[in-house]
Amino acid sequence: MEFEYQQTKKDYTDFYKQYYANGLKRRAIVIAALLLLAASYFAKDPFEWPWFLIGTISSALLIFSFYYFIPLLRSFNTLNKVLANEPVAFEERKLTVTDEGLLIESENLTKTWTWDDMTSVHDLSNFIYIILTDKRMLLFPKRHFQSDKDGTDFLWIVRGKIKPHFSKSIYGKSSGLSYALGLLGLIPVVGFITGIIFVVRGLAAPKDKWLVLIGSGGIAWTIAFFVLVFNTDLFGFQTSQVKFSQRQINGVMAAVEFYKMKNGVYPDSLQQLEENSQVWIWDPLRPGGKVNKTNEYN
């Protein structure tokens, strides 16, 4: 099997856009869960829509930057460097499938990529691409195949020849930029989310212990932060809860007096107030008070 093809810079830029957009689609459920978790944190208690929207938008920007914009810019930067050193990159070429591998010929290039040089082959919208063992990529725009069947046949021929390998992405080990994103771990909740992402990526092949350590640190910091928040007054949380509780008590007292004016007697229990008004009778400072509706004010 053989065919002629010619790549352009636009082919590469379109490919990277499709590649990372497809990654977002694959992670749609996880992303939605992360957005809901982060937005719920920002929404505060009692629930406030403006903060919920701020949390949703901020988290969306963070996640899309992590999974799309930053990797896309990295790819564009790498592409420009590679193309600057390979003036023959856009020459018209002929590809021939042989028993040994793929023979690529052009006016100034003759190169055979053996089947052992390849780790995987993939089908992505308008492209077929092959990942090499050195993490480089061979890209073939589908428009150069005479028919869809030819493209499918090429894909399955190559897939049948390549020995099984694990290929996580079109990149090798994480770069310094990926490690720098670990600074997000200093942001509570956001750090927990990015920490999980770092640990998962770090445990994937090829393993990267630094991603695991950075991710674990982000998770640990978020846990430590909330331990401090709920068990000390370091961040003023308990003070704010006391003020909130005082406002609630004032509301309860007003509701009790209103009940007396309306019915001529005081209520037998505070739960009678809750049945007839919007007053909150559960003490947020006592265990379970605000979540499970236990421990009403005395």
Task: Write a structural description.
- With 298 residues, the chain is an alpha+beta fold.
- Helices cover 53% and strands 12% of the residues.
- The strands form two sheets. Strands 1-2-3-4 form a four-stranded antiparallel beta sheet, with no helix packed on it. Strands 5-6-7 form a three-stranded antiparallel beta sheet.
- Strand 6 and strand 7 (137-141) form a beta hairpin.
- The longest helix has 37 residues, at 49-85.
- Residues 166-173 and 288-293 have low confidence and may be disordered.
Itemize the secondary structure elements and their pairings:
Blueprint: E1 2-5, H1 9-26, H2 28-42, H3 49-85, E2 93-97, E3 101-105, E4 110-114, E5 118-124, E6 127-132, E7 137-141, H4 148-161, H5 176-180, H6 190-203, H7 209-231, H8 237-263, H9 271-276
Antiparallel strand pairs: 1-2, 2-3, 3-4, 5-6, 6-7
Helix pairs in contact: 1-3, 2-3, 6-7
Separation, N- and C-terminal Cα atoms: 85 Å
Give the low-pLDDT segments: 166-173, 288-293
Q: List the secondary-structure elements in sequence, H or E.
A: EHHHEEEEEEHHHHHH
Q: What value does the Rg take, in angstroms?
A: 30 Å
Shape: elongated
Arrangement of strands in the largest sheet: 1-2-3-4
Q: Give helix % range.
A: 40-55%
What is the average per-residue confidence, as pLDDT, rounded to a whole number?
Answer: 75
Instruction: Write down how many β-strands occur, each being a DSSP E stretch of 2 or more residues.
Output: 7
Number of helices: 9
**Class per helix and strand makeup:** alpha+beta
Major sheet, described briefly? 4 strands, antiparallel
Q: Could you tell me the strand content as a percent range?
A: 5-15%
